[in-house]
Amino acid sequence: MRDRQDWARMREGIIGLGTESSRRTYYPELQSRITQLEEAREDLRRSEANLRTLFDNLHDAILIHDWEGRLIEVNDAMLSMYGVTRDTFRTFTLADYSASPDASQPNKVGIADQLARLRVEGYLVFEWRARRPLSPNGDFDVEVSLRRATWYDQDVVVAVVRDVSERKRLEAMLQQAQKLDALGQLAGGVAHDTNNMLGVIIGYADLLLEELPEGTKAREDLEQIRKAALHSADLNRQLLGFARKQTIQPVLVDLNEVFEATQKMLRRLIGEQHTLVWKAAKDLWLVRVDPSQMDQILTNLVLNARDALGPSGTITLEMANVTVDEAFHQVHPDADPGQFVVLRVTDTGHGMSPEVQARIFEPFFTTKALGCGTGLGLAMVYGIARQNGGFVSVYSSPGLGTTLSFYLPRHQGGDPATLSTQDLDPPRGHEKVLLVEDEQALLELGTRVLKEAGYQVVPVSNPLEALAKARDGSLQSVALLVSDLVMPGLNGIELFHQFQALQPTLRALFVSGYPSGTLDLESQPVLGRAFLQKPFTRAALLHKVREILDA
Predict the structure, then answer these.
(1) Over the stretch 190-228, which tens digit does the pLDDT of each residue have?
(2) In sequence order, which ranges of 131-254 are alpha helices (DSSP H)?
């Protein structure tokens, strides 16, 4: 109001400037007011420029529109997020920046409904599926904050938009990892209990096969039973691998040598109609892993790749040294920064959709026809990777094939070790053996197997009872303790240490369906090679007993 009065007075002054007295009266005041107004106008311009700079340099994207959805103003962050220029910004409507409503998306409530809620509540926050109008595949997830405001005397809506696509992707990966861990706990528990029963089946089958003559129908039937039990034991090992509870005996390994030893078998597996290409790496770092696990990894990955091929195709195996940095870790949370050796298996097959990729490491999930797969192969691959401090990544698109990468951490220092081999014929003995097993059926079976091989066996079903017998002198001259690792009251290692204090020359063999958690043999020096995974055959038990006694 004052500015209008000032301009009126200046106008009167300008009209009356014709006389000398008028000029003396009004000119200095007019000149001062003009200067003040010019300075105020410049301050206003600078203020608007500063506010514009602040508006355009905010990290959050800001959109201003009216209550009918007509776009009014936008900052640079919004233009960058949606991939449009300021000139083309207003050529689209608010609906053009929103993905089509879908039952699986948060856009089930329409824009009009959200604005109606805003009129009542005054402030609103929700997730939305957004769209980049100039990109054919430009849908992404955003979090939107709406607030009522006044813009140049107009009632408007101010929307602050944050791209949450990466956050939702990481949340989905975390949920998937948690689900796999829960499934792993379940799978490990089931496999542990099942291993004990399979051990009984396999053990008694071995004993009966010793009594039945060759060529009889009963022997053939029993061999089929034993074969089925061994197959079930293999499935259990895959479950334990997925659960990261598979007992391992790691040694230093060059993955090039692992492939050299298995390539003939792998080529037979994929068939002559498919091509297997191997790209060896020079100066490949050593990794510490159980060689039998690497055989399982190669077999499962190559078979999986073969099944993805059509009548013909190519599978490429590549090994390389890689360094995982923090940027890679942000994309793959399972991958801790460091040095790794990677085995990549690439096929030219039909590829996988994102929905399939999200589930491929779940146990029993398979896209194969009924009866053509157990769904445990890739679950086992995932479990072995995590058990050995590595991780797995997959890249695939429908029609463009798949690359699955298996990473193991580089081993720092140390010399390679080798695993000893065993004679196929079960050896015999005469020494006194204390057998401690809380599963009664396995206790009876182990007692019979060891006695028939010539050993003096003292069977005990409770570790505390065994320790009491040792202390009262009932167990003199025991050469070997054969004990389950996980038992109520006292575990096998604790029993051995307390027993050995009484009989220093005592040796031990530990057996288990799985130890509680991942069993790192190096962290328990007493174990060393003195471990046997359940279920085991009669021959495996007798070989291991003789190996320890003769060591």
Answers:
(1) 666 777 788 888 888 888 888 888 878 888 888 888 887
(2) 165-211, 217-242
Angle, in degrees to the nearest 10, between helices 440-452 and 165-211: 50
- E strand segments, 212-312: 251-253, 274-279, 287-289
Task: Assess contact for 411 and 286: CB atoms under 8 A.
Answer: yes
Greater confidence (71 vs 234) lies with 71
* Pairwise CA distance, residues 140 & 98, whole Å: 10
Q: Report whether the peptide linkage leading into residue 354 is cis, meaning its omega lies within 30 degrees of zero.
A: no
Q: Measuring CA to CA, how many Å separate 214 from each of 24, 202, 449? A: 136, 18, 21
SS3 at position 119: helix
Report the distance separating Cα 54 and Cα 353, nearest Å.
43
pLDDT digits (tens, 9 = 90+) for 337-357: 888 999 988 888 888 888 777
Parallel, antiparallel, or unpaired for β 313-324 and 274-279?
parallel
The radius of gyration of the chain's CA atoms, rounded to the nearest angstrom, is 38
Q: How far is CA 167 from CA 140, 141, 176, in A?
A: 11, 9, 14
Asked if 467 and 225 count as a contact pair (C-beta separation under 8 A), the reply is: no
DSSP SS3 for 135: coil
d(CA 156, CA 67): 6
Task: Tell me if 276 sits within 8 A of 266, measured CB to CB.
Answer: yes
CA dist 529 and 414 (Å) reads 18
The mean pLDDT value for 442-449 works out to 89
Residue corresponding to tokens 């514009």: 52
**Would strands 507-512 and 480-484 be described as parallel, antiparallel, or unpaired?**
parallel
Beta strands at 338-347 and 402-409: parallel, antiparallel or unpaired:
antiparallel
Pairing of β 139-151 and β 123-131: antiparallel
Q: Where are the alpha helices (DSSP H) in 406-478?
A: 440-452, 463-471
CA atoms within 13 A on the CB side of 441: 13
Tokens coding 493: 């290692």
